[in-house]
């Protein structure tokens, strides 16, 4: 028979919540059963949204993606709570504040209407949603993501808005179309203006960190640009003074998108520089040639700068950039990242 243990979650602002968890259920499910909604998304060990550090007690960890929880982190006591089965009472520190915990499911979900779908490059589409109903407020921190449900299914995928929190109900997503992918196929073939779509969120801990006037370098692979654009747009709206550079990389010129939006932003923000990088480009390409990893390495080496670094995109690009930062002496606590892990990875 399963034993019952106490789980205490300690948030970044030193608040805590305690609930019961059976040894045969994972911590996220046990919390939901008791109307406590901790940060989570895929609930299958693949996205790292539910990551925490276990500081007391023992547990069994189910199957997790090594991208979401690398071996060194597992060894250091980090856990994915959706795959964590307590075998004693446990205490877990989570990297977000108490306010991010919800105590009712309604607080997390809402309906939105598709108000725009368009192709913006050879492999990226832009999806515009507007929240339905009287309460139009869209609350999130730039860098967070929402889970979108494919209409008439229970399949959800995570996407990070490129716009900022607003009272008009607007959400703007930039979505890479993956051959044969479920959401990608829906977007390409079925999504149309007027369609209703269920949205859950916001989730995630990727976002701007306060570190005085330290410059911020943002590195985006493909649609990894979305949360980065949201953060830089937020800086623009609030006149934040830090110097920033966006390194935006794609493989070919056909894949580039949002150049006009980026150039407009840079013309309005004296603090912003752009490095638009294409890996396999023609001689006519007027910006950077090569990968974002190489261009960032060049800049850091030439200037000796030690900025805060924000990374987002495919796991391979994020890992390669992280290694460059480490080699060039940027402390890993000042490298903030989000990997666009495929669902169920
Ligand atoms: C926190 C978070 C935020 C995200 N935000 C965004 C975003 O803003 N924009 C965006 O475009 N994506 C984003 N993603 C990725 C997104 O959630 C989906 O995984 C992706 O769109 C594929 O979904 P799909 O249903 O089309 O494909 P699926 O049906 O999930 O996958 C079909 C096949 O394609 C493979 N596959 C899936 N994704 C990729 C990939 N990126 N590269 C190569 N192969 C892949 C799968 O392994 C599978 O074999 C985010 C992911 C996370 C975890
Ligand atoms: S919610 Fe736990 S890894 Fe995705």
Task: Report on the architecture of this protein.
It is built from seven helices and 19 strands. The protein has 345 residues and is of the alpha/beta class. The chain folds into three domains: 4-100, Beta-grasp domain (Ubiquitin-like (UB roll), Roll), CATH 3.10.20; 108-203, Translation factors (Elongation Factor Tu (Ef-tu), domain 3, Beta Barrel), CATH 2.40.30; 216-339, Nucleotide-binding domain of ferredoxin-NADP reductase (FNR) module (Rossmann fold, 3-Layer(aba) Sandwich), CATH 3.40.50. A hairpin with a 6-residue loop joins strand 10 and strand 11. FE2/S2 (inorganic) cluster binds at residues 40-43, 45-50, 68, 80, 82. Flavin-adenine dinucleotide binds at residues 47, 145, 157-160, 173-176, 178, 180-184, 204, 223, 226, 314, 338, 340-343.
Low-confidence stretches: none
Write down the overall mean pLDDT.
93
How many structural domains? 3
What pattern of helices and strands is seen along the backbone? EEHEEHEEEEEEEEHEEHEHEEHEHE
Radius of gyration: 20 Å
- In CATH, the topology of the largest domain is named Rossmann fold
Can you summarize the main beta sheet?
A: 6 strands, antiparallel
In order across it, which strands form the biggest sheet? 11-10-13-8-9-12
Structural class: alpha/beta
- Give the number of helices: 7
Strand content: 25-35%
Percent in helix: 10-25%
